[in-house]
Design goal:
The relative contact order is 0.15. This protein is α/β, with parallel strands linked by helices. It has a five-stranded mixed β-sheet with strand order 3-2-1-4-5. Strand 2 (about 115-130) and strand 3 (about 135-140) form a beta hairpin. It has helices spanning about 1-5, 20-25, 35-45, 65-75, 145-160, 180-185, 205-215, 225-240; strands at about 85-100, 115-130, 135-140, 165-170, 190-195. It folds into two domains: about 1-45, no CATH class; about 65-240, Nucleotidyltransferase, domain 5. Helix 2 crosses helix 3. The protein is extended.
Length: about 260
């Protein structure tokens, strides 16, 4: 149904998306007579849903494929004797306290939660993930920035005092400062690898952050920043006691042969 796929503003209707009633009003202007019921039936049969949208983000990096492949080959092909550590920050973690207690789950009724909450400030998690072991570590900070990122690099270096290592991070400006370059000069055993623009999914610490968000933060209620910090640290300890590396098996279609899935060393 071509008219349903045309932006309404192109035909003088000042809205952002069609509805069945609006389409039924518009169609006679292009010589098509159809009731609202008919419009709904046609949209349904054509699997058109003008009331819905799906968000996506396409990388405009001209070197996207080369950078993506470099990160993937780092995961697949790095010798077992070399460390691979993904690093990043999770800023603005809110310590939100629910003003009223939740109503517990019952049969046929999920947990019910009041919308009102009390803010107690925010923290930043400077996180690192050992790709081979699946273990997470790091520290909490009141802010983010280049200096704090260097502190994270120092933390990683202390945890891995021997052997060559690789650090994976995104291309945020705080990851490419003069202080970071100086740190790399002082630590020649470490190499920094940047993911392409808008490709944070290639950084495995982001996968771990999403798990932390889902399991601890989204439904948590924290009475203070200290309470929030304790919850994050407790989860990190628990996670590491049960840690397994992500089974990383994605490969681009352009690769003729599939690399072996990432596994623990």
């Amino acid at each position: 149904m071509s008219e349903a796929c045309r932006p309404p503003q192109e035909v003088g209707v000042p809205v952002t998306q069609w509805s069945a009633p609006l389409l039924a009003e518009h169609l006679p202007t292009v010589g098509i007579a159809a009731s609202e019921t008919s419009v709904r039936r046609i949209l349904r049969s054509a699997q058109l849903q003008p009331h819905r949208q799906k968000m996506w983000l396409h990388s405009q990096d001209d070197e996207f494929r080369a950078k993506r492949d470099a990160i993937l080959r780092l995961y697949y092909e790095t010798p077992d004797c070399e460390h691979i550590v993904c690093v990043d920050e999770k800023p603005g973690i809110q310590a939100l306290e629910r003003r009223y207690p939740d109503v517990p789950m019952t049969p046929r009724q999920p947990v019910r939660r009041e919308f009102e909450y009390i803010r107690h400030g925010t923290l930043t998690l400077m996180g690192a993930l050992d790709v081979r072991r699946g273990k997470a570590f790091g520290f909490l900070a009141p802010k983010t920035g280049g200096e704090v990122f260097v502190e994270l690099l120092d933390h990683v270096a202390r945890c891995y005092p021997h052997g060559k290592g690789h650090l994976v991070c995104d291309n945020q400006s705080s990851h490419d400062t003069d202080d970071v370059l100086d740190w790399l000069e002082d630590h020649p055993q470490w190499t920094l690898h940047f993911t392409p623009t808008h490709a944070s999914w290639l950084n495995q610490i982001e996968c771990w952050f999403s798990i932390l968000q889902r399991r601890v933060l989204t439904r948590g209620s924290f009475t203070s920043l200290d309470d929030l910090a304790r919850a994050i640290e407790a989860y990190m300890v628990w996670h590491n006691d049960h840690a397994k590396p992500f089974r990383w098996s994605y490969r681009p279609r352009s690769w003729s042969t599939a690399p072996a899935p990432l596994r623990a060393a």
